[in-house]
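User: Show me sequence and structure for the first protein, then do the same for the second.

Assistant: Starting with the first protein.
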Amino acid sequence: MYEKDGQRYFVVDSHVQYWDARPANQANRYGEGFINCCYDYHRNLSPESERWSFEEFRLQPEERVLHDLFEAGHVDKAILQPTYLTEFFVNGFNTTERDGMLAERHPGRFIVNGAWDPRDGQAGLDRLEALAQRWDLRGVKLCTAEWKGASKGWQLTDPWAYRYLELCQDLGIRNIHVHKGPTIYPLNRAAFDVADVDEVASEFPGLRFVVEHVGLPRLEDFCWIATQEPNVYGGLALALPFIHTRPRYFAKIIGELLYWIGEDRITFGSDYAIWTPRWLVERFVDFQLPDDMTEYPRLTPGIKRKILGLNAARLYDIEVPAEPEVPAPTADRVPV
């Protein structure tokens, strides 16, 4: 556990990727453009000391992943989130199968999540069942902007998506991570809209919808939805690096989240390997809202412990060392 100023923090990195974006795996110019866009985020939002060469960025050796997360990165448990992108990458960009092999070689370190796409129909439902059995899935990662043939996106409210959510419910896959963030080339902006979360969160109260990237740049839309839907959570992947480049902007993001949905429904994610967790964890522990932002709650060590790991530990039934204990969630709150 990370320790600072007498406080200990159990860290769950709930948004980790293990990708292969080498030229040999790029199916077309879109694959090249996608990883170039991700690298721009890495280069523009990282401290200079944390920037990698493009060659390092396209593929991380297994030993580097372990070092960046568990040796240098303060991470106690990492959740692997797949993004297939098979229209852009020959063998997929970051698949459950690739993630699963990494996890099997290092038991106790990782949790493996699956993925599904409603456009795969019945065959996809069968595959989800097989993935759930093979990897003991407790969560899935969905990318509603992913391309498939002539289709350039889908919605959680699509009829087939409902069938997949029903199957998740039946299989005990309760954590539905949904990529809803900034546009990444060549994916379309409209397909990242957060509006479809509202309906499915109401229809499936037994599932938890973790909106990754907290809907940025649609933070206000996300907050209004999450306030009235107690099973909607905000994942900080991609939001956290602004702690370096635009600290007041990050202060507004975390302040709005604390005001609207509270400290129990925010989760830490580094978005590795776009960013490494070490500097994000350290800067978040040191971070405090500016004194003039009095409308927001203060970031106490207890709140930081929940965000850095205890909230995700509760969602995934991760055993936490006796200190710190997982605090009981505060009562659901609606701002007045």
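Switching to the second protein now.
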Amino acid sequence: MRTLMHTTAALLTLFSLAHTLWSGLDERAVALSFGLLVLLGELTRWSGPESREAAPLAAAGALSYALLGEDAGRATHHGALQVVTVVVAATLVGCVPHVARGQGPTADHLARRVLTAGFAAVCFQPLYNQGVFEAWSVPGSDPGSAYVLLLVALLGLTSLCDAVLAAALAHARTGWPFGPLLRDELRAMLGIGTAVCATGVVMALAVAVIGLWALPVFSLPLLLTQFAFRRYAAVRATYRQTIASLARATEVAGYTPAGHARRVAVLSLAVGRELGLSEPELTVLEYAALMHDIGQLSLVDPVPAGATAALPAAEQRRIALLGGAVVRQTGVAAAVAVVVERQADPYREQPVSACVVRAVNAYEEMVRDAGAGGPLRALEELRLGTGRDYRPEVVESLARVLARNGGVVHERMG
């Protein structure tokens, strides 16, 4: 699927470039203005886990150019293929600094931008140039109202297309289930996606009335929003680093082996994605997995190798409750504390995140010193414990994750 989308984007790009070179560039001032807007958006692009759209200003500029029908009352004739050409050229130039810094995935980002802008332009430009929008207006009503309504409907289709493309590319790149990825993309449309769509449509309508001066006026709020969102993401990253530092307290004190908390967190996130948890649920799962052993700091005598899975149920529950109390004192979200303190309960009484942390922690402890055959034996022991200790669907999701990754998970947290 990923190769198909890359190939489709490449063919559309080549055809558009060839057509534009052959026929020439229409309305050069308009094309240059929108190209510079997309370029600015790409230069300010960032790679952050908190954003589903890396370059919102560029996305809004490309969408606006695709939906542009007039410039200060004068009809435009640039067509869908010129839209693709301008967007591709500006995006490629804007990607150069990011490629030089090794930030990506540039190919996926470019394919998504080309296909989304191409979809919007192909749907809008031929219909507008043929006067279809005016023909669909209800007799006796304001033609402008019908035009705006049709534009909003087309915007909804474009947003759905972009969400499907983003989810499909992420699925092909990571192997995570497509359904939850698409659900998260659709949910993200209510955030920065709504701002991108609204800005794109407003800029297209404003340019049609007052000309190109509308671009800097209406793009500034989105640019400021993007910078504010980056600051928010930086605060979230610092928050997560603080939690990771707290989680390493048990390793520094000698209660758990080095790297244990991170390994459990990485594998728990992979299992959570396999189960279809949402992004907020995955965040809680990651934090709880990082801090799942923090209750061991209350022990006078450390558990050998920090292996709590082998302790009696009552002792496991006591350590889990102490850990939940510690988490609550740190100011971390109460949902994280609930997962930590309930990880030792019978799985039928646990939230899904607690089931995941318990199963993954037990697996990591079992395979730590078990040698080459450890993973298979550990999975077999977990399956034998599904009568009371481990939720069956969690164990099977863990098995699928391990099989897909050859027994080792290297996915980036967050």
